[in-house]
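Q: My labmate handed me this sequence with no annotations at all. I'd like to see what the chain might look like in three dimensions before we decide whether it's worth expressing. Could you predict it?
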Amino acid sequence: MIVKDLYKILRRPSLLGLVILLFCSSCSNSISIPNEEDQTLEITDAQLDKLGITDREHLSAASKRALEWPDLGNEWFGEFQVSDLKGDLAYEEGVVRRDPSALIKYDGKYFVWYSKSLGPSHGFGGDVEKDKVFPWDRCDIWFATSEDGWTWKEEGLAVARGEPGAYDDRSVFTVEILEDKGKYYLTYQTVQSPYSVRVKNQVGLAWADSPYGPWHKSAEPILSPADNGIWKGEEQNRFNVIKKGDFDSHKVHDPCLLAYQGKYYLYYKGEQMGEEITFGGRQIRHGLAISDDPLGPYVKSPYNPISNSGHEICVWHRDGGIASLITTDGPEKNTLQWSPDGINFNIRSVIKDAPHAIGLNRTLDTEDPDEPFKALEWGLTHQYKNSDYQYIRRFHGKRRKIHLAKGVKVASH
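A: Here is what I predict for the chain of 413 residues:
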């Protein structure tokens, strides 16, 4: 009964709970696995055969986990390749171009927006008021166009940093685009001077009637960190806290706006004051804020956080719900997840070598009923040339259906 009771309590979308459960379960050789209704889960011969488990009387902790996995196919599993671009988005020494937005099409051309800055980064060891701290520091938002998605022309500045004293006077960066009802909306991160390790990033918004602009900026942030953490001491140490606060008490990052179910869903990355390293890496999760109007106001979901892991936001419409690529940080990193309501996400597959900071191609048919991986067919990403400079590249994704040795061919089915 002890194992069953623990299972009933801990069987939630928490890998930590699962680890504790399986530790306790390893003390028992029972072949029955209690499900969430505290009943015995039937184990069929077909399941055992598929998993290669030969002795149902002696199930390891790993075998018990495998028998509890959902019965998923390979429709959500795939792999990626990355290639250089041509034209103005090819690598340029001394220039940072990073965090490409999603791609949209207008007048027969693809459009992309991105963060752009010049020169090397000095971290917090230099003159913070004079130098550039990070590659995404002292950025403005620029845009480029292409007829084929390979050769790009840099069109110029879209959204600049604010005037001294404004909430966005230090940097505007990590931008995303939403085209909705004939208007265009850019969401992006902002930093206000002075820059420090305890600075609290916010989210800004700009809108226009054309992807060429002109862009009108929100006078105030549309999203800010939770105001319920407490720093310890005056030293600039972001890990030193009295109270950590909400999952987004330090920073709100990587905003991405989607029109969904008659409302506007603003997905974002949250960083917590006193962020820890867990068994999955950095303690980073995603959140959601919702509005009836693209200009706001945005109200954070009471269900936040809506992920256990992640870094840059990468979300798209799929099968009446929302799909999400979770990368880089946390115990569920490198997974594709799907939610029927845009809030409650479950893992659909594990992804190998996903590109960083993906800019999805919004012109692709993401609702193809037979191809959940269609949204990742091609788009843009950024890559580090070194710690100072990043550049934008093109990725291609494809489903991985079968594994063959080199030189072996099989007839298509």
